[in-house]
User: What shape does this take?
Amino acid sequence: MSVARLVASFGGCGFSPLAPGTVGSLAALACGLLLVGHPMILGAAILACCAVGYLATARVSGGEDFGWIVIDEVAGMWIALMPLALGAGRVDPWHPDRIGILWLLLAFLLFRLFDITKPGPVGWFDRRHDALGIMGDDVVAGVLAAGGLTLLRYLVAL
Assistant: This one.
């Protein structure tokens, strides 16, 4: 397996026989737990994932969004986790409590909702047939999930 294929499949997670996008998102959530306590590192990981993911996707996709390419889900999932790493009420994954686990679960569900339903700009990127479209739809889905999560956390804090 080439390095680009290994990156694009997030270490082979994308080759799951069932729901590779969901498996990739769950793997990203598990890895994200290590990063969510460190917002600067999470931010750097998101940027690195987007850059490396774009290059790997451009190399292996040929413009086709194969189901096994899940590095885009990793970038989107980590973006969705960013509100939990910032500001008041940060979620500490090393001291899990019910509320923290619910926020993590909600981040995952919101990201998957926007990734699967592809509203507005998510759908626009999804209709592109290039590496920017493959990475872009999940990045935008992650941004929408992060926005939704931030709004919900604000409303709960009122």
Summary: The radius of gyration is 15 Å.
